[in-house]
From TrEMBL:
Domain Gelsolin-like: 731-804
Protein name: Protein transport protein Sec24B-like
The organism's taxonomic lineage, starting at the top: Eukaryota, Metazoa, Chordata, Craniata, Vertebrata
Domain Zinc finger Sec23/Sec24-type: 192-229
Protein topology in the membrane: Peripheral membrane protein
Domain of life: Eukaryota
Family: Belongs to the SEC23/SEC24 family. SEC24 subfamily.
CC per GO annotation: COPII vesicle coat; cytosol; endoplasmic reticulum exit site; endoplasmic reticulum membrane
Species the sequence originates in: Carassius auratus (Goldfish)
Disordered, as annotated region: 1-93
Length: 858
C-alpha cells in the first residue's frame, strides 16, 4: 500500500505525525493515482522487441561526413556499397512527405535526413557526439538538467501512446543522480516548497500566476507561495520568488529538516569482510587491500562518529576486538557456522578516531597472519549473516572480498559451469541465481539500511550470478577481477589498486530513497539498476554512490495534448557521511510533439541503446538469451520499418534510417557482441554475468564506451585542431570505425573501452614513436606485458599522455592499460572489440545490415 501524499508528510512547520515508513517520508505520488485498486492488475508493458524499438541521437550539429577518399576503404565495397547511386530527395520534398513540417529547423532537417545505410559508409561522427539538444526556448534550455545527470530516449515526447507505438521506439529515462558535481546550489531553508497535491519540489519549470501563487508543472495544481519564499537569500531582496535559487537551477540540494528523518541521521559505518582461505592468500589481494586502506584511512568519508570493523573468514568466522586501550587487536573465532553469533557487542565496530592505532596495527598484521594457512573452504554465507547482525543496529556499508565459490554453511554453492559450453550458440544456462539466500539476505540488509559491495577476485568459476544478488538488492556495487594475481597479473593488480583508491574515498550517501515523478499522463512501469523497489515508485538505496546509473521505462497513460512540455523530477533523499539529511533534486523538461517525424527527429540513440541493453538483460534472465537477442534485432527492424512506412514515397531502395537513428543498427550489433549477450564466442559464465551487471548499473557514458569503444590512431597526432588547455596541447585525432581495416602495420592505435584501454602497436610502427613514447629502442625490444606509458621528457610523450589524461578526465575509475603487440596474447581481446568485423559466429556490420533488410522484407 502507498500512503497518500498529504496525510503524513506535510510542509515543514506543521505538527505532522511521525511517519512510520519511507514512503510517507518522501511524500507519495498523486494520492488518487498512487496505486491500482486491489484486485486490478497494473497495466503490463508490452514485451520488448514487439512494441519497442528505437531511434538515433545526437548527431544534429554536424552535416553528413564526406566519404573518405583514402585507399584504406578499398576493401569495403562488397555488393551493395556502390557509392551514392540514387539522388536523395531535397528538403522541400522531404518535409512535404513527412507531413508538411512547415517550419522545420535546420537541426531537425538534419536529424531527419534519410541515410541509406547500405551506401553511406562513414556514419560515425569524427568526435564523440553530444546528446541531442531538446527543441526548447533559450530560456528553458539554459536552466534544463544536464544530460550527464538525466537523459530521455526521446527528446521529443509523443503526445499519445498510439504515436509512441507507431514510432516503435522505447520511452525511458537514464539517470546518474548522485554523480560528482563541481557546482551544486545547496539550499538551507525552513520551508521546502512542494506541490500540495503530487509533492513535486518547486523547480525552474513551474509557472508563477502572481507573487503569491505558483502552478505545479507536473499535476497543474495551483499552490500558495509561502512567506519565507518571498525573500531571496542570493540577492537579499523581497518579492521575487521566481528568482530564488530553487527556481533558477534544475539541480539543487536541500538541507532537510527532521520531517525527512525516521531516526537521527546515522554515522558512517564501514565493515570489511575478508576471505582469508588458502586461495585468497595465494592471490595476494590482502596485501594490496591492507596497504590501500592504510593509505586512505584518513580519507574515508565521515566525521568524528565514523565507525569501522573487520571480519575475516575461511571455514570459520573471525572477529577482531579493537577496543580503545587494548595493547593489540584481539582475534575472536566463531567456529559454529550453522548458528553464527556475535562474540561481543561493543568493541567489534569501533570509533575510527579513538581506535585508529589498533586499526593500523591490524591492517599491518593481517597479510602475514594467514600465510601458512591450509584452509581451503569458504564460509561466505555465515560471514555475511554475522555482518548483518553486527551492522543492524546502525546500518552502513559492508565491503566483501571473495576469491572462490562459497563451500560451507548457509548459501554454499556448487559449480554450475560446463567449460565445454562456453562457446555454445545455443541457449546459455545458469544466468540466474542458484539459491535465493543472497537475495533474501540483501533484502534483510536493505531493511536495516545496510548496503553490501562485492569484490570478486577469482580465477575459477565462483557463481557470480548467485553472489551478485547480495549487492543488486541492497543497492551495492559489484567489482570483478578475473584471474587476479598480485605477481602474474600486474594489469589487474594496478586496476584493483586504482579502484580501491576511488572506492574508499568517493562520497557516499546512507539510508537513501529515490522517487521519480513525471508529468500527469506519463507513468513509470519498470526500473533498472541496483536497489529494492519499496513501493510502486520508491527505490530504496541503503547506500548511494556517485558511480551508479539507473534506468526506467515509461508509458503514456493519458494524452498529453493539453501541454506543450513534459517534465521529469528525480528526488534523492539521503544522509551524508557527515550526518546531514539532504535531498538532491533534478528536473528535466522536454517538448511534447504530435508528429511522428518529430519523434524520430528527437531520438537519442545512445539513451535508446542503453535502455534496450537493460531490457535485453532482463529478457535473457526471465526468458532466454536467444529471445533477448531476437528482441534486439526486432527493435531495429520494427523501428526502420515504421520509418519506411511513414515516409516511403521519398525513399530510394536500400536500408534507410533517419540521420538521428543512423547508428542504431551499429549499436545493436555491438550489443549483440558484448560478453553479456554474445553467443558462439568462448565466454566464461562469470564474465558474462559481470558484463550483465555492468550494463544494468553503470551510467550511460560508461555503458556506451563498453558497447562501442573509441578507436584513435595516435602515432601521427599533430597540433592541427588541437585543444589548448592550461598550457598543454591536447591533440584531437578523429574517431575511427571499429574494423581491422582501419589498422595499419605502420601505426599505433588506442582503443578506449571504458574500463580497459589497449594501445595496439603495429610491427612496422615508426621507431621514433616507440622510443619517444614507450621508451624502447624498437618494436622487437617492446615487452609483451607493458601496462603503462612511461613519463618521458619528449614532446611526443607529453602530447600522448596529455591526450590520454584528457580522455580520462571525467572518469572516476581508471581503466586497466595494455600495450598490445601484433603477436601477443592480449591481441584476441583487442580484436573482439572491433565490432564491425565478422567472426566465426557473428555478422560483420555490412552483413548485419543485409540481415536487417531481409527481415524487413518478410
Amino acid at each position: 500500500t502507498l500512503t497518500g501524499g498529504d496525510s503524513s508528510s506535510t510542509t515543514t512547520g506543521s505538527a505532522s505525525p511521525v511517519p512510520n515508513s519511507y514512503e510517507s517520508l518522501e511524500g507519495g505520488g498523486y494520492s488518487d493515482l498512487a496505486a491500482p485498486p486491489a484486485g486490478v492488475p497494473a497495466k503490463q508493458a508490452p514485451p520488448f522487441g514487439y512494441n519497442y524499438p528505437t531511434v538515433h541521437p545526437a548527431y544534429q550539429q554536424n552535416p553528413a561526413p564526406k566519404p573518405d577518399p583514402s585507399p584504406s576503404h578499398g576493401g569495403y565495397n562488397p555488393p551493395g556499397y556502390q557509392p551514392y547511386s540514387q539522388p536523395f530527395p531535397s528538403l522541400s520534398e522531404l518535409s512535404s512527405a513527412l507531413g508538411g513540417l512547415g517550419g522545420v529547423s535546420e537541426q531537425e532537417a538534419e536529424t531527419l535526413r534519410p541515410v541509406n545505410l547500405l551506401q553511406e559508409r562513414n556514419i560515425l561522427p569524427p568526435k564523440r557526439a553530444p546528446p541531442p539538444e531538446p527543441n526548447l526556448s533559450n530560456d528553458l534550455r539554459k536552466v534544463n538538467c544536464s544530460p550527464d545527470t538525466f537523459r530521455c530516449t526521446l527528446t521529443n515526447i509523443p503526445q499519445t501512446q498510439a504515436l509512441l507505438n507507431k514510432a516503435r521506439l522505447p520511452l525511458g529515462l537514464l539517470l546518474h543522480p548522485f554523480r560528482d558535481l563541481t557546482q551544486l546550489p545547496v539550499i538551507t531553508s525552513n520551508t521546502i516548497v512542494r506541490c500540495r497535491s503530487c509533492r513535486t519540489y518547486i523547480n525552474p519549470f513551474v509557472s508563477f500566476l502572481d507573487q503569491r501563487r505558483w502552478k505545479c508543472n507536473l499535476c497543474y495544481r495551483v499552490n500558495d507561495v509561502p512567506d519565507e519564499f518571498m525573500y531571496n537569500p542570493v540577492t537579499r531582496s523581497y518579492g521575487e520568488p521566481h528568482k530564488r535559487p530553487e527556481v533558477q537551477n534544475s539541480t539543487v540540494e536541500f538541507i532537510a529538516s527532521s520531517d525527512y528523518m525516521l531516526r537521527p541521521p546515522q554515522p558512517a559505518v564501514y565493515l570489511f569482510l575478508l576471505d582469508v582461505s588458502h586461495n585468497a592468500v595465494e592471490s595476494g589481494y590482502l596485501n594490496v587491500f591492507c596497504q590501500s586502506l592504510l593509505d586512505n584511512l584518513e580519507k574515508l568519508p565521515g566525521d568524528t562518529r565514523t565507525h569501522i570493523g573487520f571480519v575475516t573468514f575461511d571455514s570459520t568466522v573471525h572477529f577482531y576486538n579493537l577496543q580503545e586501550g587494548l595493547s593489540q587487536p584481539q582475534m575472536l573465532v566463531v567456529s559454529d557456522i550453522d548458528d553464527v553469533f556475535i562474540p561481543t557487542h561493543d568493541s567489534l565496530l569501533v570509533n575510527l578516531k579513538e581506535s585508529k592505532e589498533l586499526v593500523k596495527d591490524l591492517l599491518n598484521a593481517l597479510p602475514g597472519m594467514f600465510t601458512h594457512t591450509r584452509e581451503t573452504q569458504s564460509a561466505l554465507g555465515p560471514a555475511l549473516q554475522a555482518a548483518y547482525k553486527l551492522m543492524s543496529p546502525t546500518g552502513g556499508r559492508v565491503s566483501v572480498f571473495q576469491t572462490q565459490l562459497p563451500t560451507l554453511g548457509a548459501g554454499h554453492l556448487q559449480s554450475r559451469e560446463d567449460p565445454n559450453l562456453r562457446s555454445s550458440t545455443k541457449n546459455v544456462l545458469h544466468l540466474g541465481p542458484a539459491t535465493d539466500f543472497y537475495k533474501k539476505l540483501a533484502l534483510d540488509c536493505s531493511g536495516q539500511q545496510i548496503g553490501v559491495d562485492l569484490f570478486l577476485l577469482s580465477s575459477q568459476y565462483s557463481d557470480l550470478a548467485s553472489l551478485a544478488c547480495v549487492s543488486k538488492y541492497s543497492a551495492g556495487s559489484v567489482f570483478y577481477y578475473p584471474s587476479f594475481h598480485h605477481v602474474h597479473n600486474p594489469a589487474q593488480t594496478q586496476k584493483f589498486q586504482k579502484d580501491l583508491q576511488r572506492y574508499l574515498t568517493r562520497k557516499i550517501g546512507f539510508e537513501a530513497v529515490m522517487r521519480i515523478r513525471c508529468t500527469k499522463g506519463l507513468s513509470i512501469h519498470t526500473f533498472h539498476g541496483n536497489f529494492f523497489v519499496r513501493s510502486t515508485d520508491l527505490l530504496s538505496l541503503a547506500n548511494v554512490n556517485p558511480d551508479s546509473g539507473f534506468a526506467v521505462q515509461m508509458s503514456i497513460e493519458e494524452s498529453l495534448a493539453d501541454t506543450s512540455l513534459a517534465c521529469f523530477q528525480a528526488a534523492l533523499l539521503y544522509t551524508s557521511s557527515k550526518g546531514k539529511r539532504r535531498i538532491r533534486v533534478h528536473t528535466l523538461c522536454l517538448p511534447v510533439v504530435s508528429q511522428l517525424s518529430e519523434v524520430f527527429a528527437g531520438a537519442d540513440i545512445q539513451a535508446i541503446s542503453c535502455l534496450l541493453a537493460n531490457m535485453a538483460i532482463d529478457r535473457s534472465i526471465s526468458s532466454s538469451l536467444s529471445d533477448a537477442r531476437d528482441a534486439l534485432v526486432n527493435a531495429v527492424v520494427d523501428c526502420l520499418t515504421a520509418y519506411r512506412a511513414n515516409g516511403s514515397n521519398i525513399q530510394p531502395s536500400g536500408l534507410i534510417a533517419p540521420a538521428a537513428l543512423r547508428l542504431f543498427p551499429l549499436y545493436v550489433l555491438a550489443l549483440l557482441k558484448q560478453k553479456a549477450l554474445r553467443t558462439g564466442t568462448s565466454t566464461r559464465l562469470d564474465e558474462r554475468v559481470f558484463s550483465m551487471c555492468e550494463l544494468k548499473s553503470q551510467p550511460l557514458q560508461q555503458i556506451m564506451r563498453m558497447v562501442h569503444p573509441d578507436l584513435y590512431r595516435i602515432d601521427n597526432m599533430t597540433e592541427q585542431a588541437a585543444l589548448h588547455l592550461n598550457d598543454s596541447v591536447i591533440p584531437q585525432p578523429p574517431l575511427l570505425q571499429l574494423t581491422a581495416e582501419k589498422l595499419t602495420r605502420e601505426g599505433a592505435f588506442l582503443l578506449d573501452c571504458g574500463s580497459v584501454m589497449y594501445l595496439w602497436v603495429g610491427k612496422g610502427c615508426n621507431e621514433t614513436f616507440i622510443r619517444d613514447v614507450l621508451g624502447f629502442q624498437n618494436y622487437a625490444s617492446l615487452p609483451s606485458n607493458m601496462t603503462e606509458i612511461p613519463e618521458l621528457q619528449t614532446t611526443y610523450s607529453e602530447r600522448t599522455r596529455a591526450f590520454i589524461s584528457w580522455l580520462l578526465e571525467s572518469r572516476t575509475f581508471l581503466p586497466a592499460f595494455h600495450v598490445v603487440k601484433d603477436d601477443a596474447s592480449t591481441k584476441t581481446s583487442f580484436f573482439q572489440h572491433l565490432v564491425e568485423d565478422r567472426t566465426e559466429s557473428a555478422f560483420s556490420y555490412y552483413e548485419f545490415l543485409l540481415h536487417i533488410q531481409q527481415q524487413m522484407s518478410k
